[in-house]
């Protein structure tokens, strides 16, 4: 396997003889049992994807049993944490947890860059690391985790609270409109937030960074992307102790080339777990497309899908906020029950909408890329790309023919279904030559087939979809 200058793998399988890197061949896949959760979990644990492990210590052997565990007990965790894990219904570590946890928990702490497909259990791996490194006898912030959206920060916090429920952990959010303006100091052990609010709280010395031992960036490629949240994230990073600085942990399902160099600077000398490029999305998500006649026809097709969208739960992704609102308003006026969520809504409204969806009170959520990443709702069995995700759209909207598809966002969007080994389907709407070509690029880049389904034969469509979900 070739490595680029940053030490990431670029193509082809690694040489078996390479001392500190290895590909881990997994057993051949077996037929899945669609309904039994324990079988699905087993499928994921036996998963067929290959990972590359690169240890910062070039002398160490990544094949050593020391670097993988088959049970949570082997990790030497405090029993309060083990109790929390078992309470969550986790019996065994998932593939990424099995390989990542020994590296994350080893002492002295080592930076870590981890890549694993959506829905494979990255959150539990870094939450467990944060909780196991906190000294609960000190009322000081010792772990800080940043995520790209308030919805994801809230979800991560719920994992911290659930996993830490037998520990005395104190937690606080650094997300917009959460703390009263009069707050002068947060003493919580673990803070989870978004970069903008966190920068502000650090600047106002509400967050004391001096004792932070673990710094996690979830969706790290997004957090370090120049076009994204990088500036604010770096300002937070630069406010952390320099001497004996914190363990830096970066996780994502995608690490595009243009952020890898930077990731290596933010987390120097990291142990790494990476995926091969054609293993970026899981096989349990079946991908389809529908040929729509034009933009207006997309709306009609979506409406005709409504009964299928509500079998489980569905997320409809649009590129723009006003498209999401417009579709939601129109469908609501026509008697369908849908909700819309995007970044222009105020904080309280966003929280209420995602909570209702999480509780299953809403079945169809029409949204933007704001929740393309990380959101984990098991009942979501369908994702619709009403608009395909495009790169540089905001600057380039008037010049759509040139727009290239945003492959990474696509991978994250469809990853909102098919969580932890479950089945899911995604449907792309294409309506002209340009969108057709964009979808072909997505198909090529992900290496997964996207199958056509008829827009005008509802029965055939239903049958095909039910088959895919079986
Ligand atoms: N060892 C385990 N056993 C059973 N379920 C697990 C285990 N680890 C994680 N899960 C469950 O799997 C689901 C997906 O996990 P998680 O949200 O951490 O995925 P992720 O890898 O962070 O995905 P994404 O890339 O989309 O952020 C969660 O509902 C979580 O509770």
UniProtKB/TrEMBL annotation:
Alphabetical keyword list: ATP-binding, Helicase, Hydrolase, Nucleotide-binding, RNA-binding
Domain Helicase ATP-binding: residue ranges: 103-273
Domain DEAD-box RNA helicase Q, first and last residues per copy: 70-98
Uppermost EC category: hydrolase
Domain Helicase C-terminal: 284-469
Biased amino acid composition, Low complexity: 10-31
Pfam families membership: DEAD, Helicase_C
Name of the featured protein: RNA helicase
Organism from which the protein derives: Laetiporus sulphureus 93-53
